[in-house]
Amino acid sequence: MKMADEPIVVGIDIGTTKVCTLVARVEGGSSFRILGVGIEPSQGIRKGTIVDLQAASQAIARSIEKAERTSGMEITSALVSLAGSHVSSVNSRGVVGIAGRVIDQEDVFRALDAAQAVAIPHNREIIHVIQRGFVVDGQDGIRMPVGMHGYRLEVEAHIITAAASTVENLRQCVQASGVEVVQFVLNPLASAEVVLSDTERQMGVVVCDIGGGTTDMAIYIDGDIWHTMVLGIGGNHITSDIAHGLRLPLSQAEEIKKLYGHAVQSDIPENETFSTRIFGEERPVEISRRDLAMIIEARVEEIFDLILQEIKRSGYDGLLPAGVVLTGGSSLLPGIRTLASQVMGLPVRIAKPENLLGLTDQLNSPAYSTSVGLLSWAMMMSETPAAAGKRSRKKGGSSEFGDWFKSFLKRLLP
Ligand SMILES: Nc1ncnc2c1ncn2[C@@H]1O[C@H](COP(=O)(O)OP(=O)(O)OP(=O)(O)O)[C@@H](O)[C@H]1O
Ligand SMILES: [Mg+2]
pLDDT per residue over 317-356, tens digit each? Predict the structure, then answer.
């Protein structure tokens, strides 16, 4: 049964290849009914960063308009995805005194504020402050300290920052369509909400969203986020290798990749070919699928080498029995799972959004994990200020959360 006050949530995923605006109603407290979808090719965005304000604003505006038209609602605010190699993260600790009384939510916020007191340069903006766990009077491993007695509360926080100017540009592009950015959500954190199971997060897992221009990673251990990273490499690099290797225009290379591409050369029979037009030839020429796979394999191997290096650099490489969960548009490449597992020596599975209701035809693909994940974040934030604080809290106080949610609801278009 549908309840009148079930919240409506909006997410705008600004990717390197597409902008995807989704409007959804939360049903039964956990599933989404997609009411509006606006998917448009991106413009003016490279490796997750705006390089042409006007072009990017226009692409975002088209995506928002489409979602407004399909849903019949006017969008006034949204959660927006964020990526790019300007993002960085650090683990930090905040300590506050309690004086022997019962710990309340305000104390938790104070501890999180203290954790943010790390030296952050002026040109960086805090995007997320995520609590990883608490220590009360020296006892660690505490997941929820509210209600406990204590004298000293410590929080372990994961702080994600981004270049302030880049964030501001993105905000400006969205505002140009009359939409307020409620919060930016780092790509891999959005994707993780959709593709990771609770067991995986508990055991230790890394989520890798390989998109067009970026590879977004997050490591979860003991149920919490321990490490995040955005690499400026993705499916566009594979496409451009194909374009150079076979001497084709980029658009044709992209099409060939999707039609005939494979990540494991030895899986392709030697005699398989396809025909296409290349530069300098009047007629279509026959190209071996193996040659194509050779080009792709080299680049995909490099991507997984970089991912593995990053996992090792984090220092958590021995703590990931659940392995790697791959998502993002590039995880659609046949053979990618096998190659990922070979290169990284970890179990690998490929995941996409599931259990959606409503206008779901296009969203049933790994390319939309971040887009749908934004809706999950919006839902989490809408629950209660405390729940919002559990995963993330921007600088500026807890009272914001109750207020933004009201404005998140959109009025019906006439
Ligand atoms: N069937 C397919 N086989 C191989 N690659 C594919 C396939 N379908 C999509 N891709 C690739 O997926 C990439 C786009 O993925 P996605 O939509 O997740 O990126 P994005 O969110 O726009 O970009 P980013 O997150 O990197 O900013 C493109 O490089 C595209 O070529
Ligand atoms: Mg993406």
Answer: 999 999 999 999 999 999 999 999 999 999 999 999 998 9
Could you please state the CATH topology (level 3) that the domain comprising 88-161 is classified under: Dna Ligase; domain 1 (3.30.1490)
DSSP state of 214: -
What single-letter amino acid sits at 408? F
Ligand 1 center to 407 CA (angstroms): 33
pLDDT score of 413 more than 60: no
Distance, CA of 34 to CA of 248 (rounded, Å): 38
pLDDT-derived band at 110 (thresholds 50, 70, 90) equals very high
Domain residue ranges in the chain: 88-161, 197-350
Instruction: Measure the CA–CA gap between 112 and 104, rounded to whole angstroms.
Output: 13
Which ligand gives the minimal distance to the CA of 256?
Answer: 1
Is the Cβ atom of 48 under 6 angstroms away from ligand 1? yes
Say how far apart CA 117 and CA 119 lie, in whole Å. 6
- Say how many Å lie between the CA of residue 15 and the centre of ligand 1: 9
- 330 CA to middle of ligand 1, Å? 5
Atom of ligand 1 nearest to the CA of 327: 18
* Residue 385, both tokens: 């200020």
Instruction: Choose the CATH number for 197-350 among 3.30.1180.10, 3.30.420.40, 3.10.450.70, 3.80.10.10.
Output: 3.30.420.40
- Nearest-angstrom CA–CA distance, 311 and 4: 45
Both tokens of 4, joined, read 């009148």
* Phi/psi at 244 (5° precision): -70, -45
